[in-house]
Write a structure and sequence with these properties.
The protein is of the alpha/beta class. It has 31 helices and 36 strands. The longest helix has 19 residues. Its EC number is 1.17.1.9.
Length: 946
């Protein structure tokens, strides 16, 4: 896509089915009823001047620049607030209108500095509109309303200059209507009114502003302007691509000046984000050219030696030689690979193909299994597909929204904004979470019910809710008889209906008020369209798969599946978690979730690839590490994943890596895992590659190369180079050819191609002959598996128990400004919001230990210990502590255990028994680890230069 600014139609589109026809400047125009005159004119190619109006916001009618004349109407009404009517006759140009518009614009310009840099750069709508109305000179002396105020430069990404503000309210409305934070307001009245970020004493940085960029994008004058634009100038070209942060999958226009990225502007036609963004996708792209990024391949014989830079040929030849040597010595099963949820579908597909066709085994796994595999298992068992059921648009039809084990405002903020819009329209909210997450209570949203359960008791809470549904006659029997297995339902209903599963009986286990739980269950069952959204707080448990199936049971029992506004929807954490699962990254499955032991499927791949494939499942990551410690697993190729920081029980991960003879890390930076690596292959960012990501709603979206790879190769080319060094003879010339192979071998992707993606913008799988343009909502009219499958999910307490030595429970999560292990966001200005991981403790627990906010504390479990600062807050319940895992200095996963989900081995990050005590400094582990990291990251050419 070229550098084309999307047209702004001034006001939002009407969704009405009926139409009206009017005449504008002598031209007949037919539009949906409810369309404004301004938009009708814009759709006909007629531009009416405007300042306060933009099609991403509701009509406002304050600037008076968009005046028109309408036959039979008095005066000159504002076109942005006047609905088109049948037979209406409109004139957008006349001498009277021209005079009035120039007069209005002249008054605006008296309060706008003549030396405005945004105007000079061409980044000011007001200056463009002044030219549009023919205004060349201003007769009046400059105003003095805002010119004396200092620029607010507190935010690291944009400045607010009151001198350039015309108080059009677009920024305030964007914060309200798009983001839903209400951080901005208009203070004062009349000519003294001005934009304010909260209290008069507050700056943007200290206010409730979440730096989503909606206000910056809405501003028509440069009063809110990005630093990068001020420093680099206006962009000259642009490419539409997909964000590489969370699983929402926002579409952006990456705007360039030469090979320099200037800004990321959310794309209004993006189906996942509809022109919105968060602080990460909008601003936190500076890691792409960070000085710590590694651009040359490196090798070393031992992790005690400094790195030595080599050519690509030498690195790949050496890697292949080592892999061959190790297999010759230790056997075919002694090596494996790990795919990444940060890489494209095409890159992930090639890594699993490399393992299966090149290594000759199924020892391939992915970080997606470490966090999301219970979703695949649970939803495939109950519904027949391993993915969520709805598109994001569906939430706009929901009447009851249940959020369980997810924190949308921090983890999936753009979708959270859409959810908040629906809640402000009247939908009811149920939150099931041990922590009082932000969405439970805001100035404009209150959850109808918050069930603060004890960590690890998800299944018990859901069983208790199902008990209420069944025993109070709230199940949708007609839906169940038509769509589900009736005998299985009766068995399940008898199970959940047992008095031992009542909210009252289970209250000592869950710590949830029985009456509150009963009310929540009744609301979900009877409140209209009920939609469930869940996250890692569901899957990262020893009963993760059971919880997913319990959620599916509840949705089927109430008929909340198979149409808009309902469904079971996992909120994926990383940009391509769904895609990495789809592409066959699990040791037991090919792409499309087909088992490696299935003869027909295996023959399909063998015929296409021209090799014999192993019918036996391979090793998962923890099994690889166990086998390494046992001395039988010796080499690992890791693409775009930092298992030392992200996987549980850091000491065990370190021991497994240290026991290997060849660890190949393929990444952007010398991450924590690279401390134990012998070969480092520099990776490319999402800005430097072509391919696709698949987001949480199964939406396959194009990733387009914005700039040349700084390391010289896209990631798929690196994997292909390694494959060919092993003698596989691959000859892909573009990722589109890899997608053609994926479509050829994967039924749910059968109709997907780069050409179709260019045509449609995005596609939600399954895409095949039955659904040539994709499937936004799944299981309409029937489940993929046939009849919906009810599964009895008995509550089994985790083996991780509290006791006198470890009396508290630790659960973990994310924060808005940081992403996953922080490798990207920690190398941006986002650290201003979250420079370190903090331990949240309830005031009672903190007081018992003599701790207050800001104190250093030792966090210890049966697995290990670390230190971090304390934040005392009642967001967590007594007996529960909480922290994030974004900073390697904390190494939060040194305390998490190796307990995992019974069906998928997904680690139980969310339940760890701990003790907290005052501390004077870092633990021995942290000191030793810091020394290891410093020693392991030496690069020989740097030492020589010094």
């Amino acid at each position: 896509m070229g550098y084309e600014f999307q047209p702004d139609f001034g006001t939002p589109a009407s969704r009405a089915d009926e139409t009206v026809t009017l005449t504008i400047d002598g031209r007949g125009v037919t539009v949906p009823a409810g369309t404004t005159v301004m938009r009708a004119a814009a759709e006909a190619g007629l531009a009416i001047p405007k300042l306060c109006a933009t099609d991403s916001l509701k009509q406002f009618g304050s600037c008076r620049l968009c005046l028109v004349e309408i036959d039979g109407a008095r005066g000159t009404p504002a076109s942005c607030t006047t609905p088109a009517a049948q037979g209406m006759v409109v004139r957008t140009e006349s001498d009277t209108l021209a005079r009035l518009r120039r007069g209005v614009m002249e008054l605006y310009l008296t309060d706008h500095p003549a030396d405005c840099s945004a105007c000079a750069q061409g980044d000011c709508e007001m200056r463009a509109q002044a030219e549009a109305v023919g205004l060349t000179t201003v007769r009046y002396a400059p105003g003095d309303n805002h010119l004396g105020e200092a620029v607010d430069a507190s935010n690291p990404y944009f400045d607010f200059d009151p001198a350039k503000c015309i108080v059009c309210s677009r920024c305030v409305r964007a914060c309200d209507e798009i983001q839903g934070t209400f951080a901005l307001t208009i203070d004062g009245r009349g000519f003294a009114s001005k934009v304010s970020a909260g209290l008069p004493s507050e700056e943007f940085l200290s206010s409730e502003c979440v730096s989503c960029g909606a206000c910056v994008q809405a501003c028509p004058t440069g009063a809110l302007q990005e630093r990068a634009v001020k420093e680099l100038g206006m962009p000259e070209s642009a490419t539409v691509t997909t964000c590489a942060y969370c699983g929402v999958g926002c579409t952006f226009r990456a705007e360039m000046k030469g090979e320099q990225l200037v800004r990321m502007v959310p794309w209004k036609d993006g189906k996942a984000n509809r022109g919105h963004s968060c602080v990460k996708g909008r601003f936190a792209w500076g890691y792409a050219n960070h000085q710590e990024r590694i651009l040359n391949p490196m090798i070393r014989a031992s992790i005690d030696e400094p790195w030595r830079e080599v050519s690509w040929d030498e690195a790949l030849t050496h890697a292949a030689s080592e892999l061959k040597r190790i297999q010759a010595k230790y056997g075919r099963l002694s090596i494996g690979g790990i795919t990444s949820s940060r890489c494209t579908n095409e890159e992930t597909f090639l890594v699993q193909k490399l393992v299966r066709a090149g290594f000759g085994n199924n020892n391939v796994d992915t970080c997606a299994r470490v966090c999301r595999s219970p979703t695949g298992y649970g939803l495939k068992t109950t519904f027949g597909t391993s993915a969520g059921t709805q598109d994001f648009e569906s939430v706009e039809q929901a009447d009851v929204i249940m959020v369980i084990g997810a924190n949308p405002t921090d983890g999936h903020p753009v979708f959270a904004s859409r959810m908040k819009q629906r809640l402000r329209q009247g939908a009811k909210l149920i939150v099931v979470d041990p922590r009082r997450i932000d969405i439970v209570h805001t100035p404009h949203i209150d959850a109808a019910h918050h069930l603060p359960l004890r960590p690890g008791t998800n299944v018990a809470v859901l069983t208790a809710m199902a008990h209420v549904v069944v025993t109070e006659g709230l199940a949708d029997e007609a839906f169940i008889r038509e769509r589900c297995d009736w005998d299985e339902y009766r068995e399940w209903a008898a199970f959940v209906g047992d008095p031992k599963h009542s909210p009252e009986t289970l209250a000592p286990v869950t710590l949830v008020d029985p009456q509150e739980l009963r009310a929540a269950a009744r609301l979900y069952a009877t409140g209209g369209n009920g939609a469930i959204y869940y996250g890692l707080g569901v899957t990262e448990h020893s009963q993760g798969s059971s919880t997913v199936m319990a959620i599916a049971n509840l949705a089927m029992a109430t008929g909340n599946i198979g149409r808009e506004g309902v469904g079971v929807n996992p909120l994926r954490g990383q940009n391509n978690v769904q895609g990495s699962c789809d592409m066959g990254s699990f040791p037991h499955e090919y792409s499309g979730y087909r088992h490696v032991s299935d003869d027909a499927t295996r023959r399909l791949f063998e015929t296409d690839w021209g090799v014999a494939l192993d019918p036996e499942p391979g090793l998962r990551i923890p099994n690889m590490l166990d086998a390494a410690v046992d001395g039988v697993f010796k080499a690992l190729y890791i693409q775009g994943e930092d298992i030392l920081q992200s996987d549980p029980n850091t000491r065990h991960v370190a021991a497994g890596l240290a026991a290997m003879e060849c660890v190949i890390v393929h990444d952007l930076f010398l991450n924590e895992t690279a401390n134990y690596a012998h070969i480092f292959l520099p990776g490319s960012t999402f800005l430097e590659k072509n391919g696709t990501f698949t987001n949480a709603e199964r939406r396959i979206q194009p990733v387009r190369k914005v700039m040349a790879p700084m390391n010289g190769l896209e990631d798929w080319e690196v994997t292909q180079g390694l494959a060919n060094a092993l003698g596989l003879g691959w000859s892909y010339t573009h990722p589109s050819e890899i997608m053609d192979e994926i479509a050829r071998l994967t039924p749910t992707f059968a109709g997907v191609s780069f050409a179709k993606l260019d045509e449609l913008g995005s596609i939600q799988w399954p895409c095949n002959d039955a659904a040539p343009e994709g499937s936004p909502v799944m299981h309409i009219g029937g489940f993929v598996r046939g009849k919906g499958h009810f599964v009895v999910t008995d509550y089994v307490p985790t083996d991780e128990k509290t006791g006198p030595r470890y009396p508290l429970l630790l659960t973990t999560g994310r924060i808005l400004s940081q992403y996953n292990v922080g490798a990207q966001t920690r190398r941006t200005a986002n650290t201003v919001w979250h420079p370190e991981d903090l331990l949240e403790m309830h005031p009672h627990d903190a007081e018992e230990r003599g701790l207050k906010t800001g104190d250093w504390a030792k966090l210890a479990s049966r697995s290990g210990e670390t230190t971090l600062r304390v934040l005392v807050t009642d967001r967590v319940a007594p007996g529960v502590t909480y922290t994030t895992f974004h900073h390697p200095a904390t190494q939060a996963n040194v305390v998490t255990t190796e307990y995992s989900d019974w069906a998928t081995n997904c680690p139980e990050y969310k339940v760890t028994a701990v003790q907290v005590a005052p501390s004077n400094g870092p633990t021995d582990w942290q000191e030793d680890y810091e020394a290891l990291s410093e020693r392991s990251r030496r690069i020989a050419h740097v030492e020589a230069a010094e």
